[in-house]
Write a structure and sequence with these properties.
Layout lengths: L5 E7 L3 H9 L1 H4 L4 E3 L7 E6 L3 E11 L3 E11 L12 E9 L2 E9 L8 H22 L29 E9 L3 H7 L3 H7 L4 E2 L7 E5 L5 E10 L3 E8 L8 E9 L2 E11 L4 H23 L11
Antiparallel strand pairs: 1-7, 2-3, 3-4, 4-5, 5-6, 6-7, 8-14, 9-10, 10-11, 11-12, 12-13, 13-14
């Protein structure tokens, strides 16, 4: 049987010209870390994601409002035995019209299940096409990986280092989630995501300075201030209201790409003592991260009050 290339399709109420222009605005839906022209036939552009993935593309097909083709000239993955998977493959965008909508069929020709990177690439491309590119077409704003800065993300030298935690006691958890970092990031930043694994009674905005509210029954709630948002790599909150032991503590989610998805390193820092609440909280976090893992991998978590079942 012939190997099956990865493909996914979206239908949008927009003209082929609008969709074609959005596809060619690669920085608007895939990544801001792209160098080179992305809308000229035979031009080349380079993509990179931290020290994890680099790729060089040539635009080999450009039929206005109908088709775009990229050829992968070179590629590097940090997390696969064959670091050059993708090299020589083609990325194809084909446009057609049906019932007043534009149909965009995306195919990564040569990205097949035999590839070690297939699962994570399958999920990442699904996110960027079904979510980010579609949003760019409909609303004018996609969800690309943001431009990296010298301080952005998790330095490679620290990925496997001993944590340099602040003073006080810390709760730490580390787990592999078989979903791309993009999906996990949304699960720990958006109202819909947080409600799906922590508590349904959630009020949240993914903005630095926003105050998030999480209610657990009619008589208890927590409030968190968003201190840091590094898309797809790091989120940090400070607790403003909760049980006394929690107030002033910080909660940090660090995400790292993995060949099977995403590694989440969580630390809840600044506890003054090893109290009974500290011990109970550590156990509850483990249960809630099981809920987060199930939400990202299957689409259904176990938020409060079902997290301990």
């Amino acid at each position: 049987m012939k190997s099956q290339d990865f493909t996914t399709t979206i239908a949008v109420a927009a003209t082929p010209e609008t969709v074609f222009n959005a596809v060619n605005n690669v920085r608007g839906w895939w990544s801001e870390n792209i160098e080179g022209s992305t809308d000229q036939l035979n031009s080349e552009f380079e993509y990179h994601y931290q020290d994890v993935h680099r790729s060089r593309m040539r635009i080999t097909g450009l039929e206005p409002n109908k088709k775009v083709v990229w050829k992968v000239l070179d590629n590097y993955f940090k997390f696969t035995a064959d670091e050059t998977e993708w090299k020589g493959t083609q990325v194809i965008f084909e446009l057609s019209e049906k019932n007043g909508e534009t149909i965009l069929q995306f195919t990564h020709q040569g990205l097949v299940p035999e590839y070690e990177c297939y699962n994570v690439c399958h999920d990442a491309w699904t996110h960027y096409i079904q979510d980010s590119l579609k949003a760019l077409i409909i609303t004018g704003k996609g969800k690309p990986t943001p431009r990296e800065t010298e301080t952005g993300g998790i330095p490679a030298s620290q990925k496997n280092a001993v944590l340099n935690l602040p003073a006080g006691k810390s709760i730490c958890h580390r787990l592999l989630i078989k979903a791309p970092v993009e999906k996990v990031y949304e699960a720990v930043t958006t109202r819909e995501g947080l409600a799906g694994w922590w508590t349904p009674d959630t009020v949240a905005r993914p903005e630095v300075g926003a105050v998030l509210r999480f209610a657990f029954g009619p008589d208890y709630f927590k409030e968190m201030e968003v201190l840091e948002l590094q898309p797809y790599s790091r989120v940090q909150w400070r607790c403003l209201k909760a049980f006394e032991d929690w107030i002033g503590t910080t909660l940090t989610f660090e995400l790292s790409p993995h060949k099977d998805g995403c590694v989440l390193l969580f630390h809840h820092d600044g506890w003054k003592e090893y109290t009974p609440e500290f011990a109970s909280c550590s156990f509850d976090w483990a249960l809630f991260f099981r809920s987060l893992k199930f939400l990202c991998e299957t689409g259904k978590g176990f938020p409060y009050p079902d997290f301990n079942q």
